[in-house]
Amino acid sequence: MAEAMSSADEDGRAGSSSPGTVPALRRASVRRRTLRILGIGCAVVLLGAAGTGWWMYRGLDSNIKGVDIDRALGDNRPEKAPAALQATDILVLGSDSRAGDNAELDSGAVSGARSDTALVLHVSEKRSEAVAVSIPRDTLVDRPSCTRGNGTELGPATRVMFNSVYSAAGSACVVKTVEQMSGVRIDHLLEIDFVGFKELVDDIGGVTVDVREPIHDTKGGFTLDAGTHRLNGADSLKFVRTRYGYRDGSDLGRIGLQQQFLTALLSEVKKQDLLGNPVKSYRIAQSMTKALTTDSELASLTALVDFGRSMNGIDPGSLETVMLPVKYDKADPNRVVAAEPRASELWEAIRQDAAIPASAKKSPASAG
Length: 368
Fold this sequence. Notes:
Blueprint: H1 10-14, H2 24-34, H3 54-63, E1 65-67, H4 69-73, E2 88-95, E3 115-123, E4 130-134, E5 140-143, E6 146-147, E7 153-154, E8 157-161, H5 164-169, H6 171-182, E9 188-193, H7 194-203, E10 207-211, E11 215-217, E12 222-224, E13 227-231, H8 233-241, H9 251-271, H10 278-291, E14 292-295, H11 301-310, E15 320-323, E16 326-328, E17 336-338, H12 342-351
Helix pairs in contact: 3-10, 7-8, 7-10, 8-9
């Protein structure tokens, strides 16, 4: 829950004046501002609490990695519908790389990287409602031609697994694939890797989940009885990754757990007094910004804070979670494909900033 970096230069983000040259009154104003600057938000992130000084701001700001999706994708992209010009659509990705520090979080030997979690977060024009559409990673999709991070071209392909697009050409190609399959213009990208996810949960003191059905994942060694549990970072990561030993062991069951955890995480963040605890806020901000990759428009602390504040009107408890309607593929029952016309009805509602039809919330393929 990482890729090519392209962010604004340091002076552009933090200003050219050093702390020693700022007048006392201005320094005080800057400190008061930065004390309110940081928190965490939606996809998994909402930002809105803070550091305690200018150098902290600069450090946090330089942590954020950016991907220029506009340059990577060019002009051949969906247009915003007139009814949804002020709505915002964000692609949230969780990186399933087992490289580097992430290798310590999984006992399996898995090469490369995958988009283990992918959802389109649609924020209404009124900024009071939001819906998260999860895309099953085993969904067979048509991948468009894409430009890799090293500048080489990757040709189009049919019937590839959705989560393989990330490893083939990176997050910008995932954005392009989602836009092609949905017709939804993606405004922003938020990507977080697994190490950052684990540290984030630990920094906020854990997340409480209500386990409706027991989990006995013998492959991953993760077990939870039905009931209420307070999960630390490591167990939270196992919770959102587990699939074996829960319901029918498919990716569809895991999506239900991920959606449940997303709501619980956002609720936990919202109820904590981050403004009243600058030290804790800074620690959370460090974990978050180090793990975060965004589109270049959001790749600064100021932009993320503004984005987080624009989400303040959304109650995590009212976040609607929907899975893209899918059905089992006839040629390969271990894979799924978009179920029509339900999938098209879902994407049309997102494009028009309209209520999701009841029929589009039901999937022929389910976790059993």
